[in-house]
Every structure is written in structure tokens, then in C-alpha cells.
Design goal:
The chain has about 280 residues and is an alpha/beta fold. It contains 7 helices and 12 strands. A hairpin with a 5-residue loop joins strand 6 and strand 7.
Length: about 280
């Protein structure tokens, strides 16, 4: 059984398009689980049918916590299921879902990413690389140089489209609730990789994604969350000197942006202050 896990934040129209891209036939068993992070989004209820379950978060929990709510429900129903975490602002090409079970039979990896294209056909994500001694978290086309490889090992994969083989997890996998938005996918992948789980990306699955269509509604908040989460991630996964260099560079860049991109700058500086407040609180 495949469970598609979608986090809704005022994204009903996008989710409706994603649902329309799924097969109507009974050849592949799947259920859609929507975690509703926007309690007054009344239009979402109109999507309900036999294959759609809506879990009410009753508040905006952020991406990771909302995913945990959905994953806990899915794991309780079937700890051997495949859980596909997928963004609302995506849709599947024809005959995509049907390929999923066979992929996991052939490649028993715990966490699987896939090719992500923009609506214009450009590659948006094709693998993630991490260089600890530089503090570099990179989106890298790992599949471009290995055209004949079905699955390629990846340091991390995007939470925009992330498949979990739940039967390989002795307990329900969880995102770290310290992350509200951004970099929770990187942290998730690195934590489970350190536990021995295999992470890969495949060229046999692809989706179409409209980047930043939801996050760009509030530029200041977008950069506040991304900056905070980035600094938290560097603190966890790089050396102190690397962190300090990246921290100073980011802060200086934000100050320069005050003149040319004030919203971006205010968001980045707010993220720096949020991070410093967290450090002060935890100390």
C-alpha cells in the first residue's frame, strides 16, 4: 500500500491538481493523507472522498511536525507501507505511481528521492551532496553522469518528494520538531544515514514542481525560517570554525542586501536573531 502524505497550508487548488494526476483505476492501491496546517481552509473539505483522509493539525505546525502527524497515523495503519511525502504544488506524470512498488522490491533502500522538474522541463532536483568541512549543502545532479543507473546513493533528498520504505524502520521515522520549515529533509536524511539507513535517488520516478509557489507568499518569513534552519543545521553537522565562517558571511550578506532586497535582508536578519535567541535559551 502506498500512502501519499501531503501537508496543506492554504494550498487546496494545488492539491486538487495533484490528485487529478493520480490514477483512477484500482490497479495500484494507494491512499492520500492530507495534514491540514490551515484550520480555516474550508475548501479543503470539498476534496474528501474514499481515498482521501484529512488529519486536522488545528494550527500551523510547520512542515516537519505535520509530516510526523501523518507518518504516525500511516505507521499505525501499516508499518510495512510505502509513505510518499510530496509537496502540494506538484503533480505526477502519467504512470508514475505504478512504478513505485517494483522499485522498492528491486532496491530495498529506506529513503528514496526522485527527479524533480519545473513546469518548463528544467531539472530542479536530482540529488543532494554534503561537504562537511566546507559546510556545503548542495543540490547536485547525481543522475546526469550515471544515465544507466536506476538508483544512485545520495547524501540527502528533497522533502518536496521523499519516499519512505517503512518496513525498514523498526519504529516510525520522525522529523526533528526543532525545524519549522527548510532543511528538515537534510537533517532527517543525515540522522537516519548515521543509523545505517540507505538513501538514494532514482531516475525511474519523476514529478513536476512549481518552486516557491507557496513559500513566496511571505518573503520575510521564508528567509527567516530558511536562515534559522540553515544555522541550526550547520551547528549540528559542521565544525565550529566552519559554522562561524558561514555565520559571519551570511550575516554580512544580509546587511548588504538591506539596500537592494530589503525583504530578503529583514528575513535573513530575523532568522539570525531567532537562532541567537535559541542559543541563549538553550544555554
Amino acid at each position: 500500500m502506498i500512502y501519499l502524505l501531503i501537508v496543506n497550508y492554504y494550498s487546496t487548488d494545488f492539491i486538487a491538481r495533484l490528485i487529478r494526476s493520480l490514477p483512477c483505476s484500482q490497479t495500484i492501491r494507494y491512499q492520500i493523507v492530507i495534514v491540514n496546517n490551515s484550520p480555516n481552509d474550508d475548501a479543503l473539505q470539498e476534496l474528501k472522498d474514499d481515498r482521501i483522509l484529512i488529519l486536522e493539525a488545528k494550527a500551523n505546525l510547520g512542515f516537519g511536525k505535520a509530516c510526523n502527524l501523518g507518518l504516525n497515523w500511516i505507521y499505525a495503519q501499516d508499518p510495512n507501507a510505502i509513505a510518499w511525502i510530496i509537496n502540494p504544488d506538484t503533480y505526477l506524470p502519467e504512470n508514475t505511481l505504478e512504478k513505485v512498488p517494483g522499485l522498492f522490491e528491486a532496491y530495498p533502500v529506506s529513503i528514496l528521492g526522485n527527479l524533480i522538474y519545473t513546469p518548463t522541463g528544467e531539472v530542479w532536483f536530482a540529488g543532494g551532496q554534503f561537504i562537511p568541512n566546507q559546510g556545503a549543502i548542495l543540490s547536485t545532479n547525481l543522475l546526469g553522469s550515471q544515465l544507466e543507473a536506476t538508483c544512485v546513493s545520495s547524501d540527502w533528498v528533497s522533502g518536496c518528494s521523499l519516499l519512505l520504505n517503512l518496513r525498514l524502520f523498526p519504529e516510525c521515522p520522525q522529523f526533528d520538531p526543532a525545524y519549522f520549515l527548510y532543511y528538515e529533509d537534510f537533517d532527517f536524511c543525515r540522522r537516519y544515514a548515521m543509523m545505517g539507513h540507505q538513501i538514494a535517488i532514482t531516475n525511474q520516478l519523476s514529478i513536476v514542481h512549481q518552486p516557491s509557489s507557496i513559500a513566496d507568499r511571505n518573503i520575510v518569513k521564508k528567509f527567516q525560517h530558511s536562515t534559522y534552519s540553515y544555522l541550526l543545521t550547520l551547528e549540528r553537522y559542521t565544525k565550529k570554525e566552519v559554522f562561524l565562517w558561514r555565520f559571519l558571511r551570511l550575516t554580512l550578506h544580509a546587511l548588504i542586501l538591506l539596500v537592494i532586497k530589503p525583504q530578503t535582508a529583514f528575513g535573513k536578519l530575523a532568522g539570525v536573531l531567532s537562532y541567537l535567541g535559541r542559543v541563549k535559551h538553550t544555554c
